[in-house]
Automatic annotation (TrEMBL):
<feature type="region of interest" description="Disordered">
    <location>
        <begin position="781"/>
        <end position="802"/>
    </location>
</feature>
<feature type="domain" description="Glutamate-ammonia ligase adenylyltransferase repeated">
    <location>
        <begin position="117"/>
        <end position="334"/>
    </location>
</feature>
<keyword id="KW-0460">Magnesium</keyword>
<keyword id="KW-0547">Nucleotide-binding</keyword>
<feature type="domain" description="PII-uridylyltransferase/Glutamine-synthetase adenylyltransferase">
    <location>
        <begin position="869"/>
        <end position="1013"/>
    </location>
</feature>
<dbReference type="GO" id="GO:0047388">
    <property type="term" value="F:[glutamine synthetase]-adenylyl-L-tyrosine phosphorylase activity"/>
</dbReference>
<dbReference type="InterPro" id="IPR043519">
    <property type="entry name" value="NT_sf"/>
</dbReference>
<keyword id="KW-0067">ATP-binding</keyword>
<feature type="domain" description="PII-uridylyltransferase/Glutamine-synthetase adenylyltransferase">
    <location>
        <begin position="358"/>
        <end position="504"/>
    </location>
</feature>
<dbReference type="Pfam" id="PF08335">
    <property type="entry name" value="GlnD_UR_UTase"/>
</dbReference>
<comment type="function">
    <text>Involved in the regulation of glutamine synthetase GlnA, a key enzyme in the process to assimilate ammonia. When cellular nitrogen levels are high, the C-terminal adenylyl transferase (AT) inactivates GlnA by covalent transfer of an adenylyl group from ATP to specific tyrosine residue of GlnA, thus reducing its activity. Conversely, when nitrogen levels are low, the N-terminal adenylyl removase (AR) activates GlnA by removing the adenylyl group by phosphorolysis, increasing its activity.</text>
</comment>
<feature type="domain" description="Glutamate-ammonia ligase adenylyltransferase repeated">
    <location>
        <begin position="610"/>
        <end position="847"/>
    </location>
</feature>
<keyword id="KW-0548">Nucleotidyltransferase</keyword>
<keyword id="KW-0511">Multifunctional enzyme</keyword>
<dbReference type="InterPro" id="IPR005190">
    <property type="entry name" value="GlnE_rpt_dom"/>
</dbReference>
<feature type="region of interest" description="Adenylyl transferase">
    <location>
        <begin position="516"/>
        <end position="1016"/>
    </location>
</feature>
<feature type="region of interest" description="Adenylyl removase">
    <location>
        <begin position="1"/>
        <end position="508"/>
    </location>
</feature>
Length: 1016
């Protein structure tokens, strides 16, 4: 009789070898079973052979069926008939026989047990955990197996000795058989439901707990009634048993707690361990206080005393999994409730996070070197990586969030993702990886019911093929199933290790751990007191901001609630936490729809630390950050090559000009330029406040941005005026003052002059009219109202000042200098350099002014005297009323003006004969003067220190106050912020004032000696 047409069509080939059997005698053996006639499948056995061929090990499954037929004898006909019609039975039986030789042996020894496999699931139904036996059902079954009454408070078995062990072993094997059958059924019959590994693990833990209850009942029977009546005994499940994530073969970790006679309880506990270990799985009590050297059983007070006084960090980590699994349930609950407060305060122990990390490292170091790359459990990228990361996050954040206080790894991982403590993608990837690795571990253990976690070696082709089939992996066209398995396992371990390192070594963990558990969840009254203690001027106002940020049930609110205790603690250590929190709220609200913002602060502790510091220190940054959130991404970058500190000013300028070049309207171009400038200014300010850059780099970057903005604005104005036609004149913009010297500060204007050159056939009047209109359009576009730091272009240094023409031709400029230039104008030209417009015209302008700023014969004495008198008038007249001369960075003692006037007078005196002095940079000029012998090394060092200190102090003071300032305050919150940013101790801001006075006093001593003594 041949197979039905539909069945024949599903068969890939006629020969058993093509079906997946590797045994050469498979055809004959199938024929002996009545399923094969040497050429085709016999009758309605087609589906049976097809399911058998899909078993993880089809040859082993075939051998198992043969053994079962022999063991059943006349009962074989019933099984044969059932297999031909029952898809569920086929899937479960062949799944077990092909996936577990040990369970095949169990069926051969207890052949009637095959009938159990008919009732596990209804074919075609999706998995439903509620249809599996409950924990109480399993407890009752195991107790009844040894004749104990499940309804009694302390059940006692009616069977003891080896007979009880055999009964418990049989009950355990039956339960494992049923679970393995449900687990493996879809391997042979893909249409049957696939049971997730976490459901199987939970059921295995319930079986273990029920078996422990049965073993305890037997131990009570062996101890006698008198030893059972004087105590209560609770068995606390630890490890995977406590977490309801047990393997098929695993130690059952337990701790015993007694009430009453500890001696009697110890005898019963020891008996239970012996019976359980002999009957099913090894019971391990080494997690008890003091480990192997400690007493087996303690009363509750003894446990509490030990954990309060002596327990180490890893012991509290182990208690995360603690739950009552057998014995007196009330005593078990009392135990867990008594120790829970200690578990959830463990993260506040000194070096807690470091201890947990060190423990994980020790686990890795103790792996055998020859199998380290095959370890699914302990190796890098293995199960322990997931568990340690989850447990560390759980212990740190679970103090304030009870939703994280579960025992199960996957459930806790889901809660961490739901609560926003880790990213949703990270949680999903980690959970999927954990399930895959646990599934492989289960399959490997099922094969022989041995405790192992080793992935097959590369040269074990048969083992890899079997495991791939057991894991339902199929060839993908490029690789066979074993190759797919190896690739998937490699991808999984790499992903797990990456996520482990991201979460386990997250800097935020240390910050959260430092916050007291009582401060993670605060009442309004206690929060007000804490904020006041941390330095808030208005705790009530701060609480309103906190409430606005954390209220609601959305994911962003949950992440904010997780972050807030740490952020408040960090802000509390800044000079102005009130304003910093307000700024943080503005940033959060401006980025409310941006998914990466809160994830960045949660996952990158460095970014959170830096953001809180700059917001609580600088009003300038606090006002700008909500409008330039892209800078936030840079705060998480570390190292000298990070974007925060290593952006090339030339590259930034080029990008800015390219972006502006798309706009022909000067106003639109100015808006774009301001926006890009704002981002760069904010980046520079953050790097400056964090001490990641130095004064020359800050000045160069600020100047470069200004130059790029002017270039872009000028280009846009030219495009608007002439379109694509020829321009009536070329224009060059010359930077003066600090812009020309590339020494701009945060509040500096752009001092410029403009020159033009008529095009061929164009008159001077027409050229200057055109050039003036272009320059006015460019400066007007930059000067339009904006909340950003102003872009003020100052042209008062042009010939004749404000009363002179805005733009001159090059000959007109030269004629003015020859006929009318005053000494101060020649001095001002020392900083002149072309910054925008026509490069050739700018170069010729530089050549034209050279004789005036670098006089070949030096500076006449009367002009040197004039400069000294001018400096004296500036010192006397321009210092603001009430200003402290010793602390004024620009006009004060040893400040910027003192150093710059001294340097410029030396340049006017000697640059005509010493070309190395021909630079617009103050610091470069000082270096050249030292090299040329005009200044001693000590004098140059003092002037450099004075100029650098005044420049940095001026810049930081501007950032702190939020507006340009030249005055260093003597005291107060602003001084504290400035001192902190300058690297001085937070608790002694006066040190900053003393240091500034000392440096500038030394600089002034050099100025008094050198500037006044300069002679021709």
């Amino acid at each position: 009789m041949t197979a039905p047409r539909a069945a024949r069509d599903r068969r890939p080939a006629r020969a058993p070898a093509r079906l997946g059997f590797t045994d050469a005698d498979a055809g004959q053996r199938l024929a002996d079973l009545g399923w094969w006639d040497g050429d085709e499948v016999v009758g309605d056995a087609a589906l049976v052979v097809w399911a058998l061929a899909r078993a993880a090990d089809s040859d082993e499954a075939l051998a198992g069926i043969e053994r079962l037929r022999e063991a059943l004898g006349d009962g074989w006909a019933e099984l044969d008939a059932a297999l031909r019609v029952d898809q569920g039975l086929r899937g479960r039986l062949f799944g077990v026989l092909g996936g577990s030789m040990a369970l095949g042996d169990h069926l051969a020894a207890q052949p009637e047990r095959w009938r159990l496999l008919r009732t596990v699931l209804t074919p075609g139904r999706v998995h439903d955990a509620s249809r599996l036996p409950s924990a109480e059902d399993r407890r009752r079954t195991h107790l009844e197996a040894v004749g104990a009454k499940a309804d009694e408070t302390a059940p006692v078995a009616t069977v003891d000795g080896q007979a009880a062990v055999e009964l418990l072993r049989l009950a355990w094997r039956d339960d494992v058989l049923l679970l393995a059958a449900a687990d493996l059924q879809s391997v042979s019959e893909p249409e049957l439901p696939f049971w997730p590994v976490d459901i199987i693990s939970g059921q295995l833990a319930d079986v273990a707990a029920a078996a422990l209850e049965g073993a305890l009942a037997v131990a009570r029977a062996e101890a006698g009634p008198e030893r059972c009546a004087d105590h209560r005994l609770a068995v606390i499940g630890m490890g995977k048993c406590g977490g309801r994530e047990l393997n098929y073969v695993s130690d059952i970790d337990v701790i015993f707690v007694a009430d009453g006679s500890v001696e009697s309880a110890t005898r019963v506990a020891a008996g239970m361990m012996r019976i359980a270990t002999e009957a099913f799985l090894e019971v391990d009590a080494n997690l008890r206080p003091e480990g192997r050297s400690g007493v087996l059983v303690r009363n509750l007070e003894g446990h509490i005393s030990y954990y309060r006084r002596w327990a180490r960090t890893w012991e509290f980590q182990a208690l995360l999994k603690a739950r009552p699994v057998a014995g007196d349930p009330d005593l078990g609950r009392e135990y867990c409730e008594a120790l829970a407060p200690m578990v959830w305060s463990a993260a506040e122990r000194d070096n807690f996070v470091a201890d947990v990390r060190a423990m994980r490292k020790r686990v890795e170091e103790h792996i055998r070197h020859d199998v380290a790359d095959r370890e699914l459990k302990l190796g890098r990228g293995g199960l322990r990586d997931v568990e340690f990361a989850v447990q560390l996050l759980q212990l740190v954040h679970g103090r304030g969030d009870e939703s994280l206080r579960g025992q199960n790894t996957l459930e806790t991982l889901a809660a961490l993702g739901q609560g926003g403590y880790i990213g949703r993608d990270d949680a999903a990837n980690l959970a999927a990886s954990y399930r895959f690795l646990r599934m492989l571990e289960h399959r490997i253990q099922l094969q022989r019911l041995r405790r192992t976690h080793l992935f097959p070696s590369d040269d074990d082709a048969a083992g890899l093929r079997w495991l791939a089939r057991a894991a339902k992996l199929r060839p993908d066209g490029r690789r066979d199933a074993a190759g797919v398995l190896q690739a998937e396992r490699s991808r999984t371990t790499v992903r797990v290790r990456r996520l482990h390192e991201k979460l386990f070594y997250r800097p935020l963990l240390e910050s959260v751990a430092r916050v007291s558990g009582s401060d993670l969840v605060l009442t309004e009254d206690s929060a007000t007191k804490r904020l006041a203690a941390l330095g808030w001027s208005s705790p009530a106002g701060a609480l309103k901001h906190v409430a606005a940020l954390t209220s609601g049930t959305g994911r962003a609110s949950r992440i904010q609630r997780a972050l807030m205790p740490v952020l408040l603690d960090q802000l509390g250590h800044t000079a102005d936490p009130d304003h910093g929190l307000l700024a943080y709220r503005k940033v959060s609200e401006s980025l409310a729809s941006t998914p990466w913002f809160l994830a960045l602060l949660r996952d990158e502790g460095l970014a959170a630390d830096r953001l809180m510091y700059v917001l609580g220190t600088s009003r300038w940054v606090a006002e700008m950050m909500p409008r330039s959130p892209e800078v936030l991404r840079m705060l998480g970058d570390d190292g000298p090559e990070s974007d925060l500190v290593a952006r090339d000013p030339a590259e930034v300028a080029s990008s800015l000009r390219a972006a502006v070049a798309r706009h022909t309207d000067p106003v639109a171009a100015g808006n774009v330029a301001r926006s890009l400038r704002r981002v760069e200014l904010l980046r520079i300010a953050c790097a400056d406040l964090l001490g990641l850059t130095d004064v020359p780099a800050v000045c160069a970057a600020l100047s470069s941005v200004w130059v790029a903005v002017l270039q872009a604005a000028l280009d846009a104005a030219v495009r608007e005026r002439v379109g694509s036609g020829p321009a009536p004149a070329t224009i060059a913009i010359i930077g003066m003052g600090r812009l020309g010297g590339a020494e701009l500060g945060y509040g500096s204007d752009a001092d410029v002059v403009a020159v033009c050159e008529p095009a061929e056939g164009v008159g001077d009047q027409e050229a200057t009219t055109y050039a003036r209109a272009v320059v006015e359009a460019a400066t007007a576009a930059l000067g339009s109202p904006s909340p950003d730091p102003p872009l003020e272009v100052d042209t008062k240094l042009r010939p004749e000042g404000r009363s002179g023409p805005l733009v001159r031709t090059l000959p007109s400029y030269a004629d003015y200098l020859r006929r009318w230039a005053q000494t101060w104008e020649c001095q001002a030209l020392l900083r002149a350099r072309p910054i925008a417009g026509d490069e050739d015209l700018g170069r010729r302008f530089t050549e034209m002014i050279a004789p005036f700023r670098y006089p070949a014969d030096g500076l006449p004495e009367e002009q040197a005297t004039e400069i000294r008198r001018m400096k004296a008038r500036v010192d006397a007249e321009r210092l603001p009323r009430g200003a402290d001369r010793a602390l004024h960075t620009k006009l004060g003692t040893g400040g910027l003006a003192d150093v710059e006037w001294t340097v410029q007078l030396l340049q006017l005196q000697h640059a005509g004969r010493l070309p190395s002095l021909r630079t617009t940079s103050t610091l470069d000029a000082l270096t050249a003067m030292t090299r040329e012998g005009l200044l001693s090394a000590d004098d140059a060092e003092a002037l450099t220190a004075g100029w650098t200190t005044a420049t940095r102090t001026r810049g930081i003071a501007t950032l702190v106050r939020g507006k340009p300032t030249d005055q260093l305050p003597r005291s107060g919150r602003e001084l504290a912020a400035i001192a902190s940013a300058l690297g001085h101790a937070e608790d002694d801001p006066g040190e900053c004032v003393d240091d500034y006075r000392r440096v500038t006093r030394h600089a002034r001593a050099v100025v008094d000696r050198v500037f006044s003594a300069l002679e021709r």
